[in-house]
Amino acid sequence: MSESIGPAGEVPVAGGLPVAEEAVEAARTLGFDAAQVRHSELVPVLQRASELYYQQDAPELSDAEYDRLMRELVAIEAAFPALVTPDSPTQRVGAAPTGTFGEVVHRRPMLSLGNVFDEDELRAFDARVRRGLGLPAAPEPANELRYVAELKIDGLAISLRYEKGRFVQGATRGDGSTGEDVTANLRTISVLPDRLREAATCEVRGEVYMPKAEFARINAEREEAGLPTYANPRNSGAGSLRQQDSRITAARRLSSWSYQLIEDGADGRPTTAGQSDALARLEALGFPVNPNRAEGVDIDGVIAFLHEWREKRHDLPYETDGMVVKVDRVDQQERLGMVSRAPRWAIAYKFPPEQVETVLEDIVPYVGRTGTLTPVAYLRAAKVAGSTVARATLHNLDEVRRKDLRIGDWVVLQKAGDVIPEVVRSIPERRTGAEHEFEMPAACPVCGTAIVRDEGAVRHYCPNTTCPARLAQEFAHFAGRGGMDIEGAGWAVLEQLLARGLVKTRGDFYRLTVDDLAALDRFGRKSAENLMAAIEKSRRRPLARVLNALGIPQVGESTAIDLASWIASRWPSESMDPGEWILLVARELRGVTADELQEIPGIGAVVAGAIAAYFTNPETAGILGDLVAAGILPVPPAGRVASASGAAGPLAGKTVVVTGTLAGWDRAAAEEAVRAAGGKAAGSVSKNTSYVVAGEGAGSKLAKATELGVPVLDEEGFRKLLAGEPE
Fold first, then answer.
1. Catalytic residue from among 152, 326, 415, 701
2. Which terminus of the chain is more solvent-facing, meaning fewer CB atoms within 10 Å of its CB: N or C?
3. pLDDT digits (tens, 9 = 90+) for 697-725
């Protein structure tokens, strides 16, 4: 995966991320076995971070922490290329579409960019570009290597499709190959033209963002209404663009900058010779193009642009977290090509976070869903990057020790990525002697159970599975998105249910009555009936969602899907009572070893060990038995049935759209059955669609299928197709 080392001592590796050779050498010293274990730890953490950032607009890791972990993963894969897998975060862009919107397959991939963080790394990028083009190392005017430097907008990447001058489709980046169809919402953004100034057919890419003033307005309204405020403009803008009701999007007053034009002339070649020409063409067509850019500059000009905007950016009406540097000429871009998920001819520079000094007044351990104790810094309130910060997570005791943090210390505080508060380091020279070290408590601060530390790990945790703090977090995860998805069962409702003793187990959600709910604060009869309906609806969820809802350590949504498919392939459920199926699965999994679980694609040693430990825990049988007794009927994925041709499933290479209401499946379960049979579940009908499965109430998608001549199946035909029966 790596290339030859250049003069700057850096190696372009997986994902297009440059990484220092020292980091690669450090990874090699681990040895293959230790590197494999660390790789299996990093992959799920980065996958979850990507899902939270791109799909839920709710980042859990700071940009800086994500970049640090990604670079560590890149170094490991550079040292041990055998560890690289197609689903590694280094090989992916963003995250897969959520399924809430229809899918749009990008005609050209929407790639990510490698990141650099200082001027030396920018010059190393310039050196790599020169080597790739066969140019002298020293910049010379005759070399004709020029860059375009543009501000990096902290928003959501979009793609806009125009045909003969009319806007016809808009999508998010998604996983880089497939995005979400947000056409209706993009039409509400006034700066984006619905008709171009000429009848051009093209694709335009850019960034949608929420202006700072609009972010402040919305938060002021939410605060006045007693609602929680939003964390930052980036997540607020992304969430606004992905609303099901486009009227909500319109009310958020989003804006956009355009920065890439894909338009071919009659000869099949791009209509513009370079990035600077493309920006001019975009402006001529009527698109908003950021005027704050530098064109036709060498690397010294790029760095001058960087110096200019490092401070001026705070005066802009929108958030920018860096700049993007691109080789200007298209022919040079084509010669340089790509490396993994990123182009060799472009790089993103991240501005260093703004830092302030404040006092670390206390460190308080917080008990999370899995019992892990996370130390949280309580700080003397300080304004940083535009907002007041009083708390920041310190992650674990080892991190506290590594940064030499003591209660009473003066510390350096920043917002990583200008978003998430982070204590960078202590300031030992300001100590008075009154400071003291933090120690993890010997007993859980909530339930009093003796704290356990994982041998050889950094984790301290409360082993009491009935600890009130654990239960509250576990139940919130169980009822939340990606789990049982009980709409309306938010934190405020959950706190009341726990405080009143109405919910003591997961199954108790399904034993609630309308009268129980109507007695809650700020609940009327209608609200109680709506929540009760959501609870009833959640009884039938795909097995993967149920597994994710259980909160198995190391298991997120993607791993839960892999595990559910593997379970279905071993223990077919067609002849079983659905109410007993999950108990059979639990009983069988108690005998499965971690080695067997590692045979599942995407599951490494650490994750396999966590799954095996969960199902051998005696308490797990009680949890699952409680859910069965409460009437949970998980919908198993269809097993992969080999087709007559020996393909990996009867729908291998096929694209299926499910529309309308089916009697035997909800939409998520039907689409999961398509994937389990080797096919692709799409959200919109096109000439590339293989089948449309039409249930009751099928509307425009059925009409589109008829218009295009796409085969339409009823529910019985769908079952036969999944079973591999001849058409």
1. 152
2. C
3. 777 778 888 888 888 988 878 877 876 65
